[in-house]
Amino acid sequence: MTASKPRNKIKSAIDFALLKQLCAIHAPSGEEAPMTSFLLSYIKKEKKNWKVKPQVFFGEDFQDCIILKFGKPRTAIFAHLDSIGFTVRYFNQLVPIGSPDADAGTKLVGEDSLGKIECELIFDHEQHALYKFGRVIERGTSLTYKIDFKETSTTIQTPYLDNRLGVFNALKVAETLKDGIIVFSCWEEHGGGSVPYLAKFIYEKWKVKQALISDITWATDGVALGKGVAISMRDRNIPRKKFVKRVIDIAHKHKINYQLEVEGVGSSDGRELQVSPYPFDWCFVGAPEQHPHTPQERVHKADIQSMIELYEVLMKDL
Questions:
Q1: Domains along the sequence of the chain with CATH
Q2: pTM
C-alpha cells in the first residue's frame, strides 16, 4: 500500500558521499568505536550548520553509543552503528557476527597486529566458514565485507547499507531538526544490549517515550524497491497499533510514498524498547533493500528520499 501513486523520480539530488564514507568504516558488532569516533568528529564539524545545535552525550557511561538532544524532545530516532561480519577463531575458522550471508569467494577485510588483511571466504564440506589467506590471522580479529560502492541514477548497491543508511538518514534529519533525540546504538546485529540503558537515560532525563527505528528492512513479495519507505506494522515483535497508525496517518497527510510491511520474523532496536521497563511506543520506518546481509545490498534512491522526508515530518508532528 502506498500513500499516493508511486513516483520514482528523485525530487532533488542527494549527495551520497557521506553514505559511502559510512559504509567503508570497519565497525562490526562489538567494534563500533571507529564509527563512534567518525560520528563525533562529523557532528563537531557540521552541527554549526544545523538549525539547532544539539547537546551531545557520549563517553564511558554510554560505551560506544551517542545521544544527540535537540530542543524540547518528544520523539527519539534510534539508528544502530554496527554491521554483521566474522570473527577469526582457531586455525582458519570463522565465527559469524550476526547473520552474514555471503558466497564462497567473497573478499573479507580487516587488520591485526601484523598488518592489513584482504582474504577470501571459503566453506568446508559441512558448510563451516573459513578464510583463505597467505598467513595465519590472529584469533579474535574481525573481518567484514570489502566495500564495492556502486551508484546508478536510481539505485545504490554496497555492503552495509544495513545500517549505515539508517545512520545517514538520522544525520540528514539532524540538519533541520528542532525538537527531538537521535540515538546511535550498538550491538543490534548480534542480539543488542545497549538500548536498555539508552532508553533509561532518555526516559528518566526527558520523559521521552516515543521512538522511530531508523533501520533497513527487506524487499519481499509485498514490499518492493522504488515504491516508498516501509512502515512496519509488525515483525517478530508487535508494536502498539495506536502509535503505528499515527505514523501512517502522518505519512498519508503529507503525501509521502510509503509501503506497509507485515512480517513474522526479523527484529530491531524496537524489540529492546518493547521489553524495557519503560512505556515506549515505537515503529520501524526504513527503506527496503534487496539481498540483505550480503555484499550486494541494494536500495532505490527514491526510497531513501521518502525515508528522509517522512522522518522530517514525523519528528515535527508526532
A1: 17-83+150-317 (3.40.630.10), 86-145 (2.40.30.40)
A2: 0.95
